[in-house]
Design goal:
Elements lengths: L6 E6 L3 H12 L4 E7 L3 H11 L3 E3 L2 H4 L7 E4 L6 H10 L3 E5 L6 H14 L3 E4 L6 H11 L6 E9 L6 H4 L1 H4 L3 H16 L5 E9 L12 E8 L4 E7 L7 E8 L2 E6 L8 E3 L15 E3 L5 H5 L1 H12 L9 H20 L3 E2 L12 H4 L4
Parallel strand pairs: 1-2, 1-4, 2-3, 4-5, 5-6, 7-10
Antiparallel strand pairs: 7-11, 8-9, 8-15, 9-10, 11-12, 13-14
Helix pairs in contact: 1-11, 4-5, 5-12, 9-12
The chain binds nicotinamide-adenine-dinucleotide (NAD).
Nicotinamide-adenine-dinucleotide (NAD) binds next to helix 1.
Length: 366
């Protein structure tokens, strides 16, 4: 494919994750440049545009899609909007990067994948754990046989709850912490084991500390049993005080590795006065805190966006696809159903007509 220079990117959204996208392209600017941003909260979009020199700002993303030079659009908007946005982007002939979770329902996942295929554009699933340098190193060692035959991969992400109001509203998010953060671990285990067939899913979930805020679960544990016997164990929590925790453990017949994403790179710090910023979702910077450096790079966001831009140019094959997102969606269904029934659920599990994954926890299919 002829080199057309940097991939021109439009971003939908202007707050938490959109800022990460903007900064990621800024950190690794070799393959892509952000040329537009769209968000109905114009102040935020204009602020980001000014800070990072983004030339075009829109309040309606559909207007942005008419900008001819844009080749790839990233979606950093609430989950319930992902499907419609993907369809609109693809129909405008632009490649799609969609934040996790892919969407609300399996029907939406199918529509997103089909539309992108029909329009000849890529549907890239923004699962940054596939690009997190510390976790990628563990996967490389596993692929080199360091741990022998893998039998268990654990992933957990925990903090005291999300930053935006819509996450707590299950009609906008589709579910609680299992949907929001369990989706990372589900994708991670699937990727780590090289995408084997999934046989069974067993989950437990409850709302332990945020009952006044949400009808969603704030703690979940999910066991994924793959063909061949390997197991993924995913723990996700919005109920853990004290800031962000993200870690993996990998067990095999001949080895083991533990990787703590945040603490390994942190600076154990005591301050009576506090200071500006420690790390995502840290409740305070006074007393003991654990500030990190190069936070986005440690998570893998810039590497992820660089990879997606290279995929658009045909320089790399996409490592995180719409199909990965659809797999995660099916496991989300199975997980809510399992918790609702109090039983293990066998895959495939693809019920039609489910409005939100969490509905299967409230009213499991009998
Ligand atoms: N990969 C990760 O680790 C990660 C982390 C955080 C969030 N996310 C995902 O990113 C997405 C956005 O989450 P967030 O944390 O940025 O939420 P947020 O509340 O911080 O921001 C949401 C943004 O969506 C915009 N928006 C709302 N309606 C819109 C519309 N109709 N058109 C265009 N923009 C609209 C808002 O203006 C806002 O800028 C979610 O799907 C979330 O799951 C991923």
């Amino acid at each position: 494919m002829a080199d057309k220079g940097k991939v021109k990117v439009g971003i939908i959204g202007s707050q938490f994750e959109a800022t990460i996208h903007v900064e990621s392209f800024h950190i690794l600017p070799h393959e892509a440049e952000v040329v537009a941003i769209a968000s109905p909260t114009p102040g935020h979009a204009a602020g980001l545009a000014k800070q990072y020199g983004i030339p075009n700002v829109y309040t309606d993303y559909r207007e942005m899609l008419k900008q001819p030079d844009i080749e790839m659009v990233t979606i950093a908007a609430p989950n319930r909007l992902h499907c419609q946005m993907t369809v609109d982007i693809a129909n405008a002939g632009k490649h799609v990067v969609c934040e996790k979770p892919l969407c609300m329902t399996l029907e939406e996942a199918d529509l997103m994948i089909e539309t992108c295929k029909k329009q000849g554009v890529l549907l890239m699933y923004a699962e940054e754990l596939f690009f997190t340098p510390k976790y990628v190193k563990v996967k490389e060692m596993a692929d080199q046989g360091a741990f022998g035959k893998l039998y268990l991969v654990k992933q957990s992400e925990k903090h005291f709850g999300p930053h935006g109001g819509w996450f707590w509203d299950v009609s906008q998010s589709g579910g609680g912490v299992f949907m929001d953060m369990g989706c990372h671990g589900i994708a991670f285990a699937y990727w780590f084991f090289d995408r084997p067939k999934l046989k069974k899913v067993t989950t437990h979930m409850d709302t332990h500390v945020h009952k006044e805020l949400t009808k969603g679960e704030d703690n979940s544990i999910c066991i994924m049993e793959f063909e061949g016997g390997a197991v993924g164990l995913i723990e996700s929590s919005w109920a853990k005080p004290g800031g962000m925790d993200d870690r993996i453990e990998v067990y095999g017949s001949e080895g083991v590795a533990y990787a703590n994403l945040l603490m390994g790179n942190a600076i154990p710090t005591f301050s009576e006065n506090g200071y500006g910023y420690a790390v995502e979702k840290a409740p305070t910077t006074k007393g003991w805190s654990y500030p990190v450096f190069d936070e986005l790079y440690n998570y893998g966001f810039p590497q992820e966006m660089l990879h997606f831009a290279r995929c658009v140019r045909g320089k790399e094959t996409c490592l995180a696809t719409g199909e990965d997102g659809r797999f995660v969606q099916e496991v989300l269904y199975a997980g809510y159903q399992s918790a609702g029934l109090g039983q293990t659920v066998e895959l495939p599990f693809r019920p039609q007509g489910v409005a939100r994954p969490i509905d299967l926890w409230y009213n499991p299919i009998k």
